[in-house]
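Checklist before submission:
- one chain only
- standard amino acids only
- sequence pasted in full

Submission:
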Amino acid sequence: MTVDFAPFLPWPYLAALILAAVALAAFGLWRRVRGAWLRTAALAAFCLAIANPSVFQEEREPLSTIVAIVVDRSQSQENDGRREQADRALADLKDRLSRFPQIETRIVEAADSAETEAPSTKLFGALATALADVPPARVGGAVFITDGQIHDVPDVNQKLGFDAPIHGLITGKPNEFDRRIEIVSAPRFGIVGEQQKMTFRVVDDGAAPGGGAEVTIRLNGNEIATEHAEPGTDVPFSFTVPRGGNNILEFAVNPLAGEVTEVNNRAVHVLDGIRENLRVLLVSGEPHAGERAWRNLLKSDAAVDLVHFTILRPPEKQDGTPINELSLIAFPTRELFVDKISEFDLIIFDRYQHRGVLPILYYDNIAQYVQNGGALLIAAGPEHAGDDSIAATPLSAVLPATPTGVMNEKAYFPRLSDEGKKHPVTRGLEGASSEPPGWGRWFRTVDVDRPLGQTVMEAADGKPLLVLNRVGKGRVAMLLSDQGWLWARGFEGGGPHVSLYRRTAHWLMQEPALEEEALTARASGRTLEITRQTIEGDPGQATLTYPSGKTDEITLTEREPGLYKAEVKTTETGLFEVANDELTTLVHVGNVDAPEFKAAISTEEKLRPWAEKTKGLVRRLADADGPVDLPSILPVRGAVRVADDERLSLRMTDETVLKGINSLSLFGGLFGLAALLFLISSTWYREGR
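Returned file contents:
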């Protein structure tokens, strides 16, 4: 209750009036004038009436005490019945707290961190967010229901923003153990074909039985080695980068019987393969209009080291000029096709014919080069249909098509075949979707027998134009016309010769993105994007294996000819495996070095420093196989100064909220008037006697 004044006169005038009244009252009392006390009372009442005093009384309502319950919903809680323990503890704790009307609970469900981060358990961040709108004085405490593997525990010397107990109710079982594997050091990039070194380590957490471990190592899904490792010891490992782009190394350690989880028995490292400059040998049989198109394309590619020879003087050309007076460079056939043939990634014969420049044995050497993984491109012209065609040499063993000896001299628009519309080398070529195609015509092609492999482009009357084929470990392509230069020169609007030539060359050099049968997957946040490239028709469903071991059948939908895709949203993080037909691929969702997949055993140690500082309690919810045992609740008025080993202490708040104010004017209205009249009348009456 408070008294407030709202005077009818300004305070200076009121003060003067009060001083005058005090002086008069003092004089009367000093001189002992009859009725001085009544005059003094009347003057006081008059001054109070002018001061207009009022009595105010506040109506307040006690505020509730906020208790936060932070429930760990991270992926590690899926282990060994921990989620069931957490659910039971949450239900029991809510029931017990509901018996205290002055306590208000806030439930915080804390899952793995955001998609763009490494999966981790961040409970303190979730707690701070949940209590951001709560005054510190109203916070009665925080109870964490977790396995104890919290990755954002602040330093114990930091401030949380409130002064109340921190409690931990730990899921899991005592004496847990777990075996895991981790990458200690590894390169992020590596040159294709060169060796790279890395180090891994097997770690035993908790009361593990110990003993050595066998680690199986896979590269892009293929097993490449098995290593023996002693727990806690760094193990070096070397491997050769097989391809450009992403290469996924998977290290899998044999599980221990009874360990908490097998999810962290695999570790993944993603390495980007970088190709050194590709070495291409271009051999032109003679100068011609299309020779410059091939040369310009290959020279413009910074990733290509080009070696180009043009046969200007074949052996049969004899004009009497002495050899020592010729300015031409002799064709180093032995050096190129015997000594250093394996150093080339691609050999191109551009309108080349057998005229005695290459010994017949060298063609067999080129065929073996292809069988062993090399790449050969034949850009054919009229010479390929003649008597000196290289198809009449031992090279024919790897060529996908044999010429009939006839040239088809007919204007035509090069068109994609049904296979070509699906093949990544030719699919989506600019201008291919219209009829006739939106590019210029060609005028001749080499007639061949029915070719092997895939005919992805056709000439007049459906004749083969571009043929792709695999031979042994290598690849061969045949472009059965020498008139691609018409597109390069812009004839009738030109055409996509750069895309066509470049894709063909890179397919020959086994670029993964141009494989006609391929299964790939990539992660975008928590969404898996599965892509199946095929020229064989509907590939059916893909099988997706999650890190937890469960499997799903995924329906693939055709987005473009020969290109089937699917998107899968997942809450799990870790290594996923996708399989379709005989193809498999791996993809990792989340950070490959995520804290969530490191230590997996439940622990009381991370929360204990905070519990000791705030007089809280940390204890397990259950013994080995016992039921959930929840401690009782202890409300405490004022600061919690003593920790209780058996009960959850909660600091009760004294905060209130103002609901209303009642006011009473003491000398206002009839009451004030009556008081003044009574005192004045009493004065008059006393003086009248």
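Reviewer check: The longest strand covers residues 195-206.
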